[in-house]
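Quick one, T. Sequence first:
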Amino acid sequence: MAGKFVNHNDKIAKGKLDDGFERTQNLFYVRFGKEYTICGCWDCESLLSALENPVCGANGQPDMDEIAKKVNSDVTYYRLVEVHRREKKPLPVRE
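Structure tokens:
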């Protein structure tokens, strides 16, 4: 949604995050005319994508270890793409 990697600072105090999230929701509503109810970060988007067609184990249930590996691989790749893009280097090829 942002068109670039949004680096999340995990060291921000929860109270500040709550205030920031409420402000984000309000600004989103003013700008787009609808409620802000989703996170658009790469981690969340990748997880949602992986859960749309999950890898299932022998029991027919989603294999969360495999899903986590896929999400980690996707996010790592896209972060690398962003670093290369910012440094004006050739984009990496995904294996």
